[in-house]
Design a protein that fits this description.
Elements lengths: L1 E3 L5 E4 L28 E2 L6 H5 L11 H4 L2 E8 L7 E10 L1 E6 L2 E7 L5 E4 L9 E9 L14 H4 L24 E11 L2 E13 L4 E12 L5 E9 L4 E8 L4 E7 L17 E9 L2 E10 L4 E5 L4 E5 L2 E2 L2 E6 L10 H13 L4 E4 L6 H10 L2 E5 L10 H18 L5 E8 L11 H5 L3 H11 L4 E6 L10 E2 L23 E3 L8 H4 L3 H6 L7 H21 L7 E4 L22 H9 L3 E7 L3 E8 L6 E10 L5 E11 L3 E12 L4 E7 L4 E8 L15 E2 L4 E2 L6
Parallel strand pairs: 21-22, 21-28, 22-23, 23-24, 24-25, 26-27
Antiparallel strand pairs: 1-10, 2-3, 2-4, 4-9, 5-8, 5-10, 6-7, 6-9, 11-12, 12-15, 13-14, 13-16, 16-17, 18-19, 19-20, 29-30, 30-33, 31-32, 31-34, 34-35, 36-37
Helix pairs in contact: 4-5, 6-8, 11-12
Length: 712
């Protein structure tokens, strides 16, 4: 029996952190009898981050810091029927960040984390047939310690003591005053009478050669009432046909069911094959009743990174494939997301040609990963480590504990391909990266934890450590965040094995900015430049993306553009703004990010034409044609080549001997015998725009936005 507890909550902020001294955990009525020490309870409409419930501007502003200066208390009255049950459990899907829990005035437990669901056993404290009081104290404090007293670089040097990623960010991504706090997601009360599954897991080992999987279901068993129980493991395909069924009697306090499936169809990302899905369920029966169950939708596949000094290559079902990815952080408050918004974004991600997503330094809701599995999108899942964290052993122990729980929570999702332990550890510190984070703490312990909990996947130890053989990826912001003195074309002639961050932040259109009066007023002088800034974003993304495609497998094996959508109105990295409107940068991906592409290699002159096919099948004989014009529109070069296009290839179609120095525009096309397969166009080809003035140095920290032309 289950009672939903998502509504009916009351809340107050304990501004003097005096609640425990005043016995607020015993509260059954109003708090006026305590006097001036504690506020009264206030009803809330839903469980969301408290900033979303109580502030009109939850994405910026110094007033937001008030939410984190003192703890908050929640109260929920639970009316229970008089009949007896053998076990009572309260389940929380999300509490951000620290919490203590009391039930009917009795302290039960405390918890740390923001995305980890947890169970609270209140069996010993329940009053059957009466009102029961669930009290939760929640806090998410600010940090004060700064590495080596580098206060002028606090954004990068503050030691984040919570395992929650990008809070304390403040460089126009997560605004400096945003530190989410509160209970969100789902809370429910569950009653058990006969038997309970504890920490159930369903895993498999797959033989790709014969498409047979060995499936193992394991769980601890809590037997609450003696009886004859039977455990059943079933795996079905989408037509509801069983590929595996195992039935065994339950004996003792644990179970393990293991068996081989019939031949199964493999799961692929959408451009590499079919997204074949199966349903795996573990049931515990008593006679004709289901007493408890666990299960999820999965796809059968193998995945790993093949890494050495020369390459970082993703291998799916024993076949290398090329990653075309984007980073995803859809909202500064994860509680603002729902299935509808996720599905909208993920469909758009596929439509823009991406087959891969990096979940950047946070964890999304479970439904996000389920939709990715359904749509055939691979995921690079970061931990919550960002830039700088303490290196002491006590902090490492806390981080590792949370990281292990996160891996256990997420590892059943087929869509997750790789884990990331550290994101840019120690970035911006003197001498470059702070190697203690990689080599001493917590990097080695986090890497060991990922291998212990999930040896089936590869782990990137430190994202952006390209030469580290346990990492192997790179970040590149030349022409962007590196400095105003750099230009995106400076990457010409460079190579990267696997890029997992590149991009440029461009503000949305005037109409979108106008949705916030204060932000619009601050950026009003920028309005005449928005088209120019968006054009630079478009040109940079196009140049970078095609740069990587042209060096496919020599040595580049993929890239991850940063960022798919703005996570608030004043954070500008996205291809889409916060309200879901496209920027010009999206057009760059539509032109250059599809599985088949035709591209120019150029900088000071026009060098080559390349055709790239990422599909696992050949395209047969195709005709590649080109037409190149100068500034006056005169055709200075044209031609066509017939070429047989194999699977997963990068073909040099034409080399311009000596280079073309007066090329201004170009039209490229690829056709098979029946239709055009792809095309591409270039304008102002060798007359590339300069790096936007004032970027990235000019910013407003209170609003958390880039200012660009601030000196004008």
């Amino acid at each position: 029996m289950r009672i939903e507890l998502n509504n009916g909550w009351e809340v107050l902020q304990d501004v003097h952190d005096n609640g425990e001294n005043c016995k607020l955990q015993d509260s059954k009525g109003r708090n006026t009898d305590i006097g001036m020490a504690i506020s009264d309870w206030e009803e809330i409409s839903e469980l969301k981050h408290l900033q979303l419930l109580f502030d009109e501007h939850p994405y910026y502003g110094r007033q937001l810091r008030y939410f984190n200066y003192a703890p908050w208390w929640y109260r929920r009255i639970i009316s229970l029927p008089s009949e007896h049950h053998n076990r009572y459990i309260v389940h929380f899907s999300n509490v951000d960040y620290y919490c203590k829990i009391w039930f009917n005035g009795q302290f039960v437990c405390e918890h740390e984390g923001y995305m980890l669901g947890f169970d609270v056993d209140v069996t010993d404290y329940v009053n059957e047939g009466e009102d029961n009081y669930l009290i939760v104290k929640v806090w998410s404090p600010w940090d004060s310690s700064v590495e080596k007293e580098r206060y002028t670089a606090r954004t990068f040097s503050v030691e984040r003591r919570m395992v929650k990623g990008t809070y304390e960010h403040s460089d126009t991504f997560i605004q400096r005053d945003v530190n989410p706090i509160g209970i969100y997601g789902e809370v429910w009360f569950e009653m058990y009478d006969e038997i309970q599954l504890i920490d159930p897991q369903i895993n498999y080992d797959l033989s790709v050669s014969n498409c047979i999987a060995t499936v193992t279901a394991e769980a601890s068993i809590n037997i609450l009432k003696e009886g004859n129980y039977k455990a059943i493991l079933v795996v079905k395909d989408k037509e509801n046909s069983e590929v595996l069924r195992i039935e065994e009697p339950v004996k003792g306090n644990s179970l393990k069911l293991k068996g081989d499936t019939l031949p199964v169809k493999l799961w692929y990302v959408w451009d590499q094959g079919e997204e074949n899905l199966y349903e795996a369920r573990l049931y515990v029966y008593s006679e004709d009743r289901i007493c408890d169950e666990y299960g999820y939708t999965l796809g059968f596949r193998t995945i790993y990174l093949d890494r050495d000094k020369e390459k970082t290559q993703a291998v799916l079902n024993n076949r290398p494939f090329y990653i075309r990815g984007t980073s995803y952080f859809p909202d500064a408050y994860i509680s603002n997301m729902n299935e509808e918004r996720y599905r909208r974004d993920l469909i758009r991600i596929k439509e823009a040609g991406f087959n891969f997503i990096r979940v950047h330094v946070h964890v999304e809701q479970q439904i996000f990963y389920e939709i990715c599995t359904e749509l055939g999108l691979g995921i690079m899942q970061d931990s919550e480590f960002n830039w700088m964290h303490p290196t002491d052993r006590s902090y490492e122990d806390r981080f590792v504990k949370i990281y292990k729980e996160t891996l256990r929570m997420l590892k059943h999702h087929t869509s997750i391909f790789f884990w990331v332990c550290l994101n840019e550890p120690g970035v911006m510190l003197p001498g470059g990266m702070h190697c203690d984070l990689m080599d001493v703490s917590p990097g080695p312990a986090l890497y060991a934890a990922s291998q212990e909990i999930d040896p089936s996947r590869s782990t990137i130890k430190g994202s952006c450590w390209e030469d580290d053989l346990l990492s192997g990826d790179s970040h590149n912001y030349i022409g962007s965040l590196v400095s105003e003195e750099t230009h995106y074309s400076d990457i010409y002639g460079t190579t990267e094995k696997f890029n997992t961050e590149y991009g440029f932040d461009a503000p949305p259109d005037k109409e979108t900015l106008a949705k916030d009066t204060r932000l619009y007023k601050r950026l009003e002088k920028l309005i005449p430049h928005i088209e120019e800034i968006q054009d630079y974003q478009y040109k940079l993304l196009k140049y970078y993306t095609e740069h990587y495609r042209i060096q496919k497998h020599a040595p580049n094996n993929g890239y991850v553009q940063f960022l798919f959508s703005d996570l608030c109105l004043q954070s500008f990295y996205g291809l889409y703004d916060y309200y879901g409107n496209p920027k010009k940068g999206l057009q760059a991906m539509l032109e250059s990010n599809m599985p088949v592409g035709i591209f120019l290699k150029y900088k000071d002159d026009l060098d080559e034409i390349h055709l790239v096919n990422d599909y696992p099948y050949g395209l047969g004989e195709c005709t590649v044609s080109w037409k190149i014009m100068d500034k006056e529109g005169n055709i200075i070069s044209s031609g066509e080549e017939k070429v047989d296009v194999p699977s997963d290839c990068n073909l040099l179609i034409h080399k311009f001997e000596g280079g073309l120095t007066d090329a201004e525009a170009c039209i490229l096309s690829v056709r098979d015998k029946e239709k055009e397969i792809c095309s591409n166009e270039y304008h102002q080809l060798l007359n590339m725009p300069k790096h936007v003035k004032g970027h990235p140095s000019h910013m407003d920290h209170e609003l958390g936005c880039r200012l660009y032309f601030a000196d004008e």
